[in-house]
Design brief:
It is a single chain. The chain is of the alpha/beta class. The strands form four sheets. Strands 2, 3, 4, 5, 6, 7, 8 and 9 form an eight-stranded mixed β-sheet that branches. It has a seven-stranded parallel β-sheet with strand order 13-14-12-15-16-11-17, sandwiched between helices. α10 (268-282) runs parallel beside α11 (299-313) and α20 runs antiparallel to α22. It is globular.
Amino acid sequence: MADRLTATLALDKPASRVKLVSPARAQALSQLGVRTVRDLCTHYPRRYVDLSKRETVATARIGGSCTIQGQVHEVKLKRPRPQLTLVEISVVDETGVLMVTCFRQPWLKDQLKPGMPIAVAGKVEFNYGFKRMVNPYLEPLEAGQSAEGMIIPVHPACEKISAAWMRRIVENALDMVRGCYDPLPLDLRAKYRLMSRTQALSCIHFPQSMDEVAQARRRLVYEELLLLELALMEQAQNRSAGATPTAHVVDGPCAAALECVLPFSLTDEQVAARNDIFAQMAAPCAANHMLLGDVGTGKTAVAAFALAAVADTGTQAALMAPTEVLARQHAKSLGAWFDQIGVAWGLLTGATPDEERQRIVRETLTGKLQVLIGTHALLEDDVRFDKLSLAVVDEQQRFGVEQRAALLMKGGAPDALFLTATPIPRTLALAVFGDMTLSYIRRRPHDAARRTTHVLAKVDQGQAYDAARAALERGEQVYVVCPLIGQDGAARDSRAGGRRRETDEEAYEYAAISIESDGDFSGDNVTAATKEAAYLQETVFADWRVELLHGRMKAAEKDEVMARFRANETQVLVATTVIEVGVDVPNATVMIVADADRFGLAQLHQLRGRVGRGEKPAQVFLLSASKSEASLARLAAMERTDDGFELAKYDLSLRREGDILGNRQSGASVLKLVNVVRDERIIEAAHADAAAIMAADPALSDLDHQALALEVRRTFPADAAGAAAH
């Protein structure tokens, strides 16, 4: 018993307690995000090399993959360019010489010595008179050791710790936790025929067969998902602990009157979403609902019914938008409807005059205002509600966890309704928003103008500018988006974040992506952008007015630039920063995006949603200097479909396990093995099982759930559960 407890507690010891982890190695591990024994045990192999398929240099087939065992004959370090190093290794066996080239791994010059036995696994090519492998897997062997029958795990490594050293360190970490308590209840393990945790960790790191890898991964994927779902559901449960939620009136006169004053009829999807929200609001427990819909699908109209239900209940609602432009837009559309049905409302932003602000704050506190629309200004300490029963957060991904929580804290246990135009497939939404109920609107209420997307090589950008000039001559307007202007390749790669922290033998398409969220537009080069705008004004668009929108501008300056563009005083807008969601310029019909290969597909889809908002057909041109086939194939998906959810699913299918939330969040994500496309059934099962466990044992206090509860709370400290996923 004591040994099992010791092994379980060892999971949270610092990585420096593991054998072979010196202070220098502990520092190198921390740069990979590995700080504890638990982190080492979940530092899973990126791939596996099956060394059982052995060939000699003579029998190795060109174009095929195999393992060749031989001796190192010579190692040379070369620098063909100032920023490029390569190590050339000649490996000999009894039949010939194999030339091995390893890019950007200069330390191999010191690690590999002539005469050293080695196994080399990779794809065989033929160039310059020799059979060759480029960036193969290298496995130094002991004297007399054979590579036959070995399955070698390839762990993410770094310059200070090679893949071979990482294996030894992980093996020592596994020794420390062998026999630890299994957090999964026995009935769940039996239900799905899952390995024990100790066995799964051993098999995924050091398998005897690839079937063992599959079974271990199945167990560990389920565990990751179950722990996350439980943490999120427990967090949602704690949010309303000690408070009395509001069971809203959803069939009152305001909601009925709203349907009569709307200048259009709701679509079937909008009606279904409204009914979902009403069902959650009418229940005697705090609702936590997300409404997902592409730009222009009418989410605001659906949210209006939730706000009207609050008025019918005699309580108050808050609607928080990320920008003043969007808040004012909501006030304009919602306010007109609310005035007709007798719902008292107000608008509060950073620009609200003091006297008006004091009145709004006073009327909110007394309960006179039933709906308060605003920006971050709603979070100010002096903004207090008489009885806040619903908090609506528009474009929820634009707010931090703390900001969303701060709004909810202004009520006892208010219902929460989150709106997002980010297309999130259902499986991903279940995985990372497991504490929420979900509604989707996939179709636009009215047929949108036809919008076509074209991917062009940078050398063909003239075609895009020709189309832009043709649109301008018709009296239309143009966006030119170039957020990475003035940055060289190294700077762009550094913006791509954690994916390049490790030395990985495999090329990974997503390593090069710099922009996946609005926050990634920060740090633009104003000088280079100003020069670009001036160049376009003087040459390409000499007959029209060009204006620049950049990230260093104050909010008021950005609003002024957008106001001029909306009024058609400016015909071409060069943007290095995000073009705000909700900005509606129906006359803008052409968008040109530079460095399109550096964007995630979701961000590109959000961008192109800024054109084609009127009745005129629109064109989007994605420029790329990339020669990567994978990169160009990914962009080609933008040409094939205009459906954001279909794009998002395709986008996810290209990503590695764990990298599902975008490169700024994936380092913090605990979903290291989950592939939301391939693991759809496991996600559904884990979500259902977590809901059943929480319904039967909300405190996770049953004897069968105590190890599970300990694991949930250690993996997700109380304040971090939402941050890890949201």
